[in-house]
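Friendly challenge for the regulars: who can give me the C-alpha cells for this chain first? No prize, just bragging rights.
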Amino acid sequence: QVQPVESGGGLVQAGGSLRLSCEASASTYSVNAMGWYRQAPGQEREWVGRIISSGATMYADSVRGRFTISRDKFKNTIYLQMNNLKPEDTAVYYCKVGDIWGQGTQVTVSS
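First reply, four minutes later:
Bragging rights claimed.
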C-alpha cells in the first residue's frame, strides 16, 4: 500500500514561495492520479490540483497561475511549487495518492 508523506511546509511572508513534496512509500507507477488538497481552520478540505499519469495537470481557480504540480516518477514523488503566496493560502496541505491520504504539512502565510 502506498503511504504518502508530505514535507516542505513552513512560515512565509505574502508574496513568497514554498515547495511541498509528497513522497510515496511504494511505486506510484500504477497510480493514475496524485493530487494536493488543503484545509484551512474551520473550513472544509478543498481540492488544489492534481497530476495524472500522462503528466497532465489541473488546478483550482484560486491557485491557477501561482501553483505548479510536477512529478518525479523515479522518486515516487510529486511536488507543489507555490509562488506569490497569499495569507488566504494558509492551510494544512495534504497529498492524496489514489485513495490514500498523507498526514499533511502546515503552510502559514503572513501578511
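DSSP finds no helices and eleven strands in the chain. The CA atoms of residues 18 and 101 lie 21 Å apart. Your move, everyone else.
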